[in-house]
Amino acid sequence: MTEHFEVGVIGAGPAGLSVAHPMQAAGKSTVIIEEYLWGGTCPNYGCDPKKVLLAAVEAKERAEWMKGFGLRGHEEIDWHALMAHKNAYTDPVPARKVMNLDETGVAHRYGHAFFVDAHTIDVNGQRITADTWVIATGARPARLTDVPGEAYLFDNEGFLNLADMPDEIALIGSGFIAVEFANIAAAAGAKVHLIAHKHHLLHEFDQDLTQDIIRQLEAKGVRIEWDFETVEVTKQSNTEYTVIAADGRTVTVNRAFVAIGRVGNTDRLNLAAAGVELGHNGIKVGKDLRTNVPHIFAVGDVADSPVAKLTSTGAFEARYVAGLLNGTEPAELSYPAVPVMVYGSPKLGTVGMSAEEAARQGYAVEEFDMTNWLEYWRLKEPVAKAKVIFDHEGYIVGATVLSGSADELINYFTVAINTKQDKQAIKHNLYAYPSLGSDMSFYYSGSNDATAFGGHAF
Ligand SMILES: Cc1cc2nc3c(=O)[nH]c(=O)nc-3n(C[C@H](O)[C@H](O)[C@H](O)COP(=O)(O)OP(=O)(O)OC[C@H]3O[C@@H](n4cnc5c(N)ncnc54)[C@H](O)[C@@H]3O)c2cc1C
Ligand SMILES: NC(=O)c1ccc[n+]([C@@H]2O[C@H](COP(=O)([O-])OP(=O)(O)OC[C@H]3O[C@@H](n4cnc5c(N)ncnc54)[C@H](O)[C@@H]3O)[C@@H](O)[C@H]2O)c1
C-alpha cells in the first residue's frame, strides 16, 4: 500500500526537523524519514556532545588561569565521568525527537529512503508519495582515498563516544574538527598529533589569529605534523596504529581519527529516478532552495547553497522553505550574516567580512587586545583579541574574535552587522554591567582605560 502526504522530508537532522514541524503546524500532512539517529549529526555526534565535553576543558583551563589569583590545586579531567555527563545529554536525544514528532503530529518512518520516481520514495519496501519533497540528508565524514589501512581510522562519532581516552592519538585533518578535538583530547591528558597535509590550520579563518591557536595547541603539548600526506595506515595491535606519510615520516598512536571535511549524502538517494541534479558541493538548488525539479527542495548540509554548512544555516534554510511553502517567505532567500565558530581554547569566531577582504576594499580594520577588559582581566585570560571591520560609512561589516568567550562576543557583532550598527549605535545600547556587552560598549565609548588592568575610567 502506498501512503500519501502533502509534504515528505528525508533526513531528521536539524534541517529536516526544522521544516517538518512548521509544515505540520500549518496543517499540511507531513512525514519525515530517518535511517539512523533521530536528531541527526548535531545533537548525537556533532556540535552538542562536543560542547558538553568542552565544559570540563573550559573549567580546567579557567582554573589554571586563576592559579595564584585565588585558586590552588590541580584539576584533572575524569574522562569516564565526563563521558557519562555527555551520554546523559546524547542518549535521550533520538527518543525525545520522536516524542516531539508524536506531539506535533508529524508522521515518522524509520529506514533508508530512496527515490523511485519524482513523487515516490521507498522505505523498507514501502512506498510513500508526497506533493512536495524536502531532501535534508546531511553529510558524512569524507574519507581518505587510495590509502591502505584507511578503514582503521575512526571519525567524529568514534571520538565523541570514546569509552577511554587513549594515551596517544592522531587527528588527520586541519579544520574545525581536528582543532576542536585536539584541544579536548590534550586537556584530557592524551598526547595528540595533529596531522596537517599542508602548512596551515583553519585555512578559511584569519591566518594571523590562527597563529595564536597554533601557539596555544603547541603549549598544550599538541604536536603538529605539517605537510604530512598520509599514504598508509598500519595496525600493529588493537591499540597500536601507525600513520605513514609520503615522505616516510611515521606517527604511531593508540587510535587515529580522520577529519578532512564532509561529503553530502546524495549517493544513495537514487536521485536520477527523480531527475534531481547535483552541483559541485551537494544537491544543486536555486535561490529558493528548490532543486531543478520544482516540487523537490534541498536544505542543510546536503544542499549546494552559498553558506557555511552549520546547524544554524541548515535550520535557517529549513525554516525558509517551510515559510515559502506556507506563503510567508519571499521567492528568494537572503541570508543574514553567518557567525562561524571554532570551539578551541581560545575559541575563534568570525562573521561577515574578513580583514583580508577589508584590505582589498580599503575598509578600516580595527585590531585590539581585550585582555584588559574587565571580563577577561578578572579571569586572568591570557589571549583575547579582536579585529572589527567598518565600511566607508562607519558601519560594522565584519568581525573576528579570539577568546574563551568569542562565541558570545561574535553574536553581538552579528547583531551589529544585521542591524547596521556603527560605533555610535553600540555606545547607545545599555548592557548589564559588568559583562562582555558593557566592556564592548565602554571600549567604543573610549572610556576603557587600556593601561589600568581593565579598570574602566568612568
Ligand atoms: C564533530 C562535529 C561538530 C560540529 N559542530 C558544529 C557546531 O559547533 N556548530 C554548528 O553550527 N555546526 C556544527 N557541526 C555541523 C552540524 O552538525 C551540521 O551542519 C548539521 O548537523 C547539519 O544538519 P542537517 O540536518 O543538514 O544534516 P544532519 O544533521 O547530518 O542530518 C541528516 C540526517 O539524515 C539522515 N539520512 C541521510 N540519508 C538518509 C536517507 N537516505 N534516508 C533516511 N535518512 C537519511 C541521517 O542519518 C541524518 O540523521 C558539527 C559537525 C560535526 C561532525
Ligand atoms: N564549530 C563548528 O561550527 C564546526 C565544528 C566541526 C565541524 N563543523 C562542520 O563540519 C565540517 C567538517 O569539519 P572538518 O574539520 O572535517 O572539515 P573542514 O572542512 O573544516 O577541514 C578539513 C581539513 O582537512 C584538510 N584535508 C583535506 N584532505 C586532507 C588529507 N588528505 N589529509 C589531511 N588533511 C586533509 C583540509 O585542508 C582542511 O583543512 C566543517 O566544514 C563544518 O561545516 C563545524
Features:
alpha/beta, nucleotide-binding, 15 helices, five-stranded antiparallel beta sheet, disordered C terminus, 24 strands, FAD/NAD(P)-binding domain, binds nicotinamide-adenine-dinucleotide, flavoprotein, nucleotide binding, Enolase-like, domain 1, binds flavin-adenine dinucleotide, 3 domains, 458 residues
Structural account:
- This protein is an alpha/beta fold and 458 residues long.
- It has 3 domains: 2-140 and 263-326, FAD/NAD(P)-binding domain (3-Layer(bba) Sandwich), CATH 3.50.50.60; 150-260, 3-Layer(bba) Sandwich (FAD/NAD(P)-binding domain), CATH 3.50.50.60; 346-443, FAD/NAD-linked reductase, C-terminal dimerisation domain (Enolase-like, domain 1).
- 32% of the residues lie in helices and 26% in strands.
- It is built from 15 helices and 24 strands.
- Strands 1, 2, 3, 4, 5, 6 and 18 form a 7-stranded mixed sheet that branches.
- A hairpin with a 2-residue loop joins strand 4 (113-117) and strand 5 (120-123).
- The structure holds flavin-adenine dinucleotide (FAD) and nicotinamide-adenine-dinucleotide.
- The site of flavin-adenine dinucleotide has 37 residues, from helix 1, strand 2, helix 2, helix 3 and helix 10.
Total E-strand runs: 24
Percent of residues in helices comes to 25-40%
Using the CA coordinates, give the radius of gyration: 24 Å
User: What is CATH's topology name of the largest domain?
Assistant: FAD/NAD(P)-binding domain
Strand count, sense and barrel status of the largest sheet are: 7 strands, mixed
Average pLDDT score = 95
- Chemical compounds bound to the protein: flavin-adenine dinucleotide, nicotinamide-adenine-dinucleotide
Q: Give the low-pLDDT segments.
A: 448-458
Query: Structural class, please?
Result: alpha/beta
**How would you sum up the global shape?**
globular
How many domains in all? 3
Q: In CATH terms, what is the architecture of the largest domain?
A: 3-Layer(bba) Sandwich
Continuous helix count: 15
